[in-house]
Amino acid sequence: MKALVVGNGGREHALAWALLQSPNIEQVICTPGNGGTATMNNCHNLSLGLDDFAGIVKAVKENQIDLVIVGPEIPLSLGIVDYLREHNIAVFGPTKAGAKIESSKSWAKEIMTQAGVPTAQSQTFTDALAAQEYIDQVGAPIVVKADGLAAGKGVIVATTRSEAIAAVAELLGENSGKLVIEEFLTGSEVSVLAVTDGKTIRPLLPAQDHKRIGEGDTGKNTGGMGAYSPVPLVTQELMTRIEQEILQPTLAVLNQKGIDYRGVLYAGLMITPAGDPKVIEFNCRFGDPETQVVLPLLDTPLDEILLACVEQRLEQLPALEWKSGSAVCVVAASGGYPDAYEKEKAIAGIDQANQSGAIVFHAGTKKMQLEQQEQIVTAGGRVLGITAVGDDFNQAIAIAYDAVKLVQFVGMYYRRDIGHKYR
Ligand code: AMP
Ligand code: GLY
Fold this sequence. Notes:
CATH topology of the largest domain: D-amino Acid Aminotransferase, Chain A, domain 1
Number of helices: 14
CATH class of the largest domain: Alpha Beta
Bound molecules: adenosine monophosphate, glycine
Strand content: 25-35%
Structural class: alpha+beta
Strand order of the largest sheet: 3-2-1-4-5
Helix content: 25-40%
């Protein structure tokens, strides 16, 4: 079988890598891919834009691709799945209508209310004055969210009233003119990525992201500086509650609305101090970097799961099989990220890190000619996801950080405390 992965991040490298672990997969093409997918065996890139749907259809036909997997939310929210399905292409991912669960926070809240899913109390506003009155009524801390996709920059957790009022001005001005203002939740954040064929929904192992740039979860929010899986806090009993109280009722409401959702429903959860799961947000895709720790633990061939979703026979698929250990991913970022940073720095030591027992997933990298040589260079804020699987967290952390020390590029920054909670 041949697969095509749309996207160019660490998530997409991990998807391509996991597909190539399967005995069923002979080749993977990535559009546009990155330096990692350009250099993996049986994998190559085609330089097509994420919104070049016609180009992707042409590539699928020319290369006799059997299955397309869409990584990022932007093409999903633009309707890539609707377009590919019209061309009779097997594609894993929700339609534009389903992707709205991520692309509109107010709509996601409506779905949660209808489904009776536990989430932060909230209200939607288009008017700054009404938003201000609500903030005065509820008080700080309070969370202000832009309604639409904002690449991780649309959420402001305001600790004071004046921060909240400033957040309203900033987010109303820059976005679709719609805001969701919600209750501040406390507890531990967990990501549960669940696969669904629109009828049945099955969670993958839970993971935890490290969103802040600094050690001890301090400083600015980022796309994610590392992750680990599974999450000891999420017991079997809690996972059953997440399935019954959150995943299944949400899918049922999507169904009632006539939405044919075959992809990942990613629940970003807060586990409250009382131990109850509440939804912070839904995403319509695999998480990044969560995918980089979840897929290396998966023993069931990934293509079998994705095809069962696309062909709507997930119920018949045997229980998913997992390795018994733990996985940790440490993100190596460009100095300065999440603010401005430099690009095109040569990266050394990737082969040595791979040989040491880690898996180096590329995120912002590309292959280019530098000093008369073809080299892998930095091309984004998050550059590499250096991942390791171990018998336990101690072992996974040791392998991952030993590998991190083998990698070098000018300005490289990483957090030293990924997964340390469970060491
Ligand atoms: P998001 O972009 O929706 O993932 O939000 C970014 C981060 O903001 C989340 O990972 C949380 O840490 C935080 N956040 C969002 N909503 C809430 C909330 N209601 N209560 C507390 N923290 C929140
Ligand atoms: N890890 C956060 C996300 O994928 O949205």
